[in-house]
Sequence to fold (622 residues):
Amino acid sequence: MYLKTFFCIVSMFFLSTFPACTQMIDKLSVHAWEMLSDLNAALLRQIQTDKQSGDYGAVGCPHCRLYHTRAAEAVYPFAFEFQHTGNKVYLRAAIDVGNWLIKQQQDSGAWPETPEEWTGTTTDQALMMALAYPILRPHLTKRESDKWLRAIEKAGDYLERVMSPQFASINYCATTTTTLLFVDRLISKESYRVKARELAHRVIAKMDPDYFLTGEGGRVFGVKYGVDLGYNMEMSLWGLTLYALLANDKEVYECVEKSLEKHLPFVYPDGSLDASWGIRSNKWTCFGSGTSDGSILLFSLFMDKNDQYRRAAIKNIQYLRTCMRDGIVGFGPLYFDIFESPPCIYPTFAKAKNIAMAIAFMRADEGISAPLPSEQKGIRYFPTLNVVTLRTAEWCSTISAYTYKDPAGEKSKYMHRPTGGSICNLWLKDHGYFQASSQTIYKRWEPMSFPEMPDTKPLTPRIEFTNPSGYFTNLYEFDAHLTYSDVSGIYTVNCFGELKNSKQQEGGIAYRISYEFTDSALCKEIELFYHDANDRVRIVEPIIYYPGMSFIQTDERTVSIRARNKQIEIHVVSGKVELELGKDASEYRFPYPALQAYPVGLNIRNDTSDIRQTVRLIIKIL
Fold:
């Protein structure tokens, strides 16, 4: 007895002294269920309960003050919670919202995405109805059951008829592969299976040589191009995976597996999803994208292959929680600091359905906690994207010179994303986002999804100047040349290009940016080439502002930044510059991602005789 106690004490000592000898075990379902319950409870509070209302049972949006038809996708997370808890409140809510959705269906079988007219989202609604129906069938009346099946079949027929890359962005095609197979389980039709396979193979054909899926941007000869990491991970790849598992399609499964491996480095150490550089980054929220479902299901489907995916899913759930209040999901970590009004309900129901599916279809729920690529030191270059990610002891960063161009030019919502060698994401250990990015100009490209916000300035670090011809910046350089190197753990990224306007016109000044990352510092060297103009150039370094941070200029070349867990110094090492703190600071806030920043400006003094000029600054962790 005493010997056994002695060995127990000794074992406890060694386990606590040498934690590296043990491996922590993670279980996704624990985190997922807690989150799903919170999201469902919040959605339940938005339901129209007046039986005299024509919208009885619908999920209301307090921000838009209407009933989005897509919000009825809560039918499945409600049904799923009832199935596993027996709580009949969710049974009633699921049936009522499903009945309401059926009334919104058009004769064609489509559901318009109210308040707009887009019908591609029919695939999302049909999938949720098809998954919810088997759970709810014993509790539906005969009349209700018949209506549900007719509505699901009409939606399936519509998708079979219209869905293609010519009709929709690629994520809709990918989701439809799964939707048709689940509809087929209820209403068996060979045509559904044929269409699903046709779409799946059409989608994987649009993967580039590094398995990044193209097809989210503008059209060229009727076909869409361009990569968006957010929609790839939060819509397309999980749709293809579920299809592949249901159809036993090994070719599609293997393509997705290779693609996910390439996407994983963009999951940051805190679980945030870095969709900052993608062509649909105008909806980037830090936890994902504003109107897409989520990446948790995708990770859950590959947990049996790689324990890193379980960790990614759990960390993403934990990060999502930092963007919520009372179960409602905002558009980013500071939404509730920036806005007084509640956010649109979209991220809340979208994440609820994704997490419900993750619990339902997950593989290998329990396993070791394996570190993510972003938690390990290293630098990676993605040649088909012209994007670099890196991690040092303290920093994690993404630098983008992604070259995609929409033929529509400045009229395109895809052509105001950060590029040109900009740091579009910079994360600091034990702090969070130190710098981030946004649209270069804010426009409400989709009025339903983009809240009103006048007088905003971009969050992205940048080089810029303005003259009578307009505004010019590296952020509009879509042809930049980017290189990188790793010398003894010091990571260097170089980028060369022209300062351009939104029409892709050069302004007469070229630039070179060089970033040098060490464990505790980031050195930026910016060289300007006045080849055909000599305008005054400004370097802007917006620093993400969390409540309680302070910015003090300690001398003419140094700024001291105090945060809760860090003290950082920005020091101008060389160059003819004047520091300017806080100019137009109130305008440095964006809805996507919901972040605000405090600007540190470097106004460059130049003479008319200057041909080249170099500015060097260092951001150091003290």
About this structure: The CA atoms of residues 62 and 342 lie 7 Å apart. The two ends are 53 Å apart (CA to CA). Residues 142-162 form the longest helix (21 residues). Residues 1-21 have pLDDT under 50 and may be disordered.
